[in-house]
Amino acid sequence: MLVKITKMQVFRRYSTSLMIALPVLFSVLFSASINARQLGDVTLPDSVTLDGTDATLKLNGMGYRTKFVFDVYVGGLYTESRVESRDAVQALKGPKRIVLHMVREVSREKMTAALNDGFEKNTSEKQLEKLQSRLKTFDSYFPDLKVSDVILLDFIPATEVRVSVNGEEKGLIEGADFYTALLDVWLGEEPADDDLKDAMLGEEEEEEY
Asked: How deeply is 153 buried, as exposed, middle or buried, from its count of CB atoms within 10 A (0-12, 13-18, 19+)?
């Protein structure tokens, strides 16, 4: 027996399906927008959990590292709680993360030279001498960097500083003192970029939603 379906029945079925689908679609889109922050073409998640820990870290702030008139990378700082000063970040004993998302190609030599300059400007001669062998190891983990490469610099309490590039762990460096000095490359008295320091500390955050 043939069943005749009217245009009204088709419309009702379509409308019902649409009413069911729309809330799901809006939920997905809304979740994506509130669970990440965007700066230009770079998107960073609002929260992360580092391997080897069970703590959830929140994105404290993100901004551009600029050299002359060129944007070099987007830097982000993740911490367990909201912080607004260098001293407050250094006082936190839990895990932390610095993320560098490249928006410009940079050679290994230029990247490590810039990082080493940050160590030298924000660390005493005595402390820098203690860090020197570990700093050479740290430098060895960096390849030539391309646009969209992502560097993760993680602090895991009571263990090591972990360096990853594009999801691949490059190595571990012992010592909380090394991460303290590393943070000061961006948050110290002579940071790599004053505007980026402010952005990481949430003072002048340059973000787009």
From this structure: buried
